[in-house]
């Protein structure tokens, strides 16, 4: 069973029979259906069904010449509503399943951001060159199976403007360092040493979460899993109409990047409020607008 099904309200899927009921409902009552002809006798198909606002299950497979559908892959999803970034993106096919992952280098994150591609049919239709980077709009979302709410850091407008100016300057330095500017590389190295010294000094008398506002760290063995801390900008509680389980949909700001996260109410410790922070592990998904290729 897919471990992230419970993030969208399917925590009681314990057997193949339970899963087949969901897949059958997706096929019988789809919200969206996409078909792409891959040969004279076969068509790759993706079928999606929402079980609450913006979240549901997608199945992917092939129709043969006799009209029979052969399931190859399924996954839970959560759609984002706002473009997260517009960056150089590379799409690659996964080796373990019939799916694709994307990668982009966003200077705000500081690492190569890898995500599961939600709209792979659009990529196949676009006939994009695999492994070739292009600047395209990207909408990120995350599914979480474990998280907690922690208090926010009290700040004022003057401090926020100072932090934004520092972040903008650092992003500029990172961009210059990637282009080979040695002065920018040296400046970033000195900044990192100063930051380490500051954190080491303050952590002796302060809690680490009062020093680190947000973070974005690769987590576990999967390349598209991350441990994040982000400030909640907005949130709502929705209900999976099939299971009646309640799910939190959080819109957070993490390392100056805004994206949405979906987590089962039973898996979230604490009560979300605007200004508080979410800390948890997420499976990062992304939808790329291939019309701008």
Give a description of the structure:
With 293 residues, the chain is of the alpha+beta class. Among the domains are: 5-78, N-terminal domain of TfIIb (Single Sheet), CATH 2.20.25; 85-139 and 288-292, no CATH class; 154-207, no CATH class. The protein is 22% helix and 42% strand. Strands 5, 6, 7, 8, 9, 10, 11, 12, 13 and 14 form a ten-stranded mixed beta sheet that branches. It is globular and about 70 Å long.
Identify the notable features of this structure and list them briefly.
single chain, 293 residues, alpha+beta, N-terminal domain of TfIIb, 10-stranded mixed sheet, 4-stranded antiparallel sheet, 22% helix
Number of E strands: 14
- The best one-word shape is globular
Helix and strand composition category: alpha+beta
Beta percentage is 35-45%
Radius of gyration from the CA trace?
Answer: 21 Å
Q: What oligomeric assembly is this protein in?
A: single chain
Intertermini distance: 35 Å
> What fold name goes in the CATH topology slot of the domain at 5-78?
N-terminal domain of TfIIb
Helical content class: 10-25%
């Amino acid at each position: 069973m897919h471990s992230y099904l419970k993030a969208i309200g399917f925590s009681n899927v314990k057997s193949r029979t339970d899963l087949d009921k969901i897949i059958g409902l997706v096929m019988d009552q789809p919200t969206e259906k996409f078909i792409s002809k891959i040969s004279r006798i076969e068509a790759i198909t993706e079928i999606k069904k929402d079980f609450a606002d913006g979240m549901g299950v997608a199945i992917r497979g092939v129709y043969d010449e006799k009209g029979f559908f052969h399931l190859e892959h399924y996954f839970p999803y959560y759609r984002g509503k706002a473009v997260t970034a517009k960056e150089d993106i590379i799409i690659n096919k996964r080796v373990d399943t019939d799916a694709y992952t994307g990668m982009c280098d966003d200077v705000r994150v500081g690492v190569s951001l890898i995500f599961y591609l939600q709209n792979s049919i659009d990529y196949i239709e676009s006939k994009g060159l695999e492994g070739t980077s292009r600047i395209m709009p990207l909408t990120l979302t995350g599914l979480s199976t474990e998280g907690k709410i922690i208090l926010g850091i009290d700040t004022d407008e003057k401090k926020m403007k100072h932090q934004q100016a520092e972040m903008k300057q650092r992003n500029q330095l990172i961009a210059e360092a990637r282009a080979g500017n040695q002065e920018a590389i040296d400046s970033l190295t000195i900044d990192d040493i100063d930051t380490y010294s500051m954190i080491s000094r303050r952590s002796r008398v302060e809690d680490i979460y009062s020093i680190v506002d947000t973070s974005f760290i690769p987590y576990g063995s999967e390349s598209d899993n991350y441990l994040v801390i982000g400030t909640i900008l907005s949130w709502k509680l929705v209900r999976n109409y099939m299971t009646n389980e309640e799910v939190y949909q959080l819109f957070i700001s993490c390392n100056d990047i805004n994206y949405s996260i979906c987590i089962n109410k039973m898996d979230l410790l604490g009560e979300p409020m605007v200004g508080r922070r979410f800390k948890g592990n997420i499976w990062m998904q992304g939808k790329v607008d291939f019309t701008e290729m």
